[in-house]
Amino acid sequence: QVQLVQSGAEVKKPGASVKVSCKASGYTFTSYDINWVRQATGQGLEWMGWMNPNSGNTGYAQKFQGRVTMTRNTSISTAYMELSSLRSEDTAVYYCARGREGEIDYWGQGTLVTVSS
Amino acid sequence: DIQMTQSPSSLSASVGDRVTITCQASQDISNYLNWYQQKPGKAPKLLIYDASNLETGVPSRFSGSGSGTDFTFTISSLQPEDIATYYCQQYDNPLLTFGGGTKVEIK
């Protein structure tokens, strides 16, 4: 069965960076895009960007351009999302999610990133 | 960027009621519109894709319609397990945008 398993919760100070991993299993990792979506407590879903694991091509929401980097290691079927220059407003649950055409069909369990001094 | 306006932001209905949620795109998105259900503490779940296609395993009381800029999501007979927040999402290759969400509660 398709699974996306994310790394554990993180606590970071303002100005630091965080890197979240997402290990895929149950399907061919390079055949589907990986999206990253975040959700602050009590708020809605916010799409951050996508990556094609086969080519490594990426596309980022304008809000995050310059601060987010999405990469992958195909040998271990793992995608990564790194967000830099963290501020308190970046405190949220971060999800990786598999893209199927224009929809998202599988989601990771989420990783809570807390930014606090 | 394409904006998605979802309404209402919350609603309260009785078990068995028909529930309708709307989503409006800021420009024509054809049928590139999906609907998700999210329960507290859980990841979202895909219910409807390409405006009107029911995802495998999703109960038939859920349905979607629309094209262009105006879309509708319907629960034909609200069940207690349908309590959740529902989101629309558009796809403007390769960018995605979510609506603000609709919280559905039982009256």
Short description:
Chain A has strands spanning 3-6, 10-12, 18-25, 33-39, 46-51, 58-60, 68-73, 78-83, 92-100, 103-107, 111-115.
What is the topological layout?
The complex is a heterodimer of chains A (117) and B (107).
Chain A: E1 3-6, E2 10-12, E3 18-25, E4 33-39, E5 46-51, E6 58-60, E7 68-73, E8 78-83, E9 92-100, E10 103-107, E11 111-115
Chain B: E1 4-7, E2 10-13, E3 19-25, E4 33-38, E5 45-49, E6 53-54, E7 62-67, E8 70-75, E9 84-92, E10 95-98, E11 102-106
Parallel strand pairs in B: 2-11
Antiparallel strand pairs in B: 1-3, 3-8, 4-5, 4-9, 5-6, 7-8, 9-10, 9-11
- Rough outline of chain A: globular
Biggest protein-protein contact in the assembly: A-B, 22 and 24 residues
Number of helices of chain A: 0
Percent in helix of chain B: under 10%
Overall mean confidence score, pLDDT of chain B: 97
The total beta strand count of chain B reads 11
Order of helices and strands of chain B: EEEEEEEEEEE
Describe this structure in words.
The complex is a heterodimer of chains A (117) and B (107). Chain A has no helices and 11 strands. With 117 residues, chain A is mostly beta strands. In chain A, strands 2, 4, 5, 6, 9, 10 and 11 form a 7-stranded mixed sheet that branches. A 4-stranded antiparallel sheet of chain A has the order 1-3-8-7, with no helix packed on it. Chain A is globular and about 40 Å long. Chain B is globular and about 35 Å long. In chain B, the strands form 2 sheets. In chain B, strands 2, 4, 5, 6, 9, 10 and 11 form a 7-stranded mixed sheet that branches. A 4-stranded antiparallel sheet of chain B has the order 1-3-8-7, with no helix packed on it. Chain B is mainly β and 107 residues long. The mean pLDDT of chain B is 97. Chain B contains no helices and 11 strands. Chains A and B meet through strand 4, strand 5 and strand 10 of A and strand 4, strand 5, strand 9 and strand 10 of B.
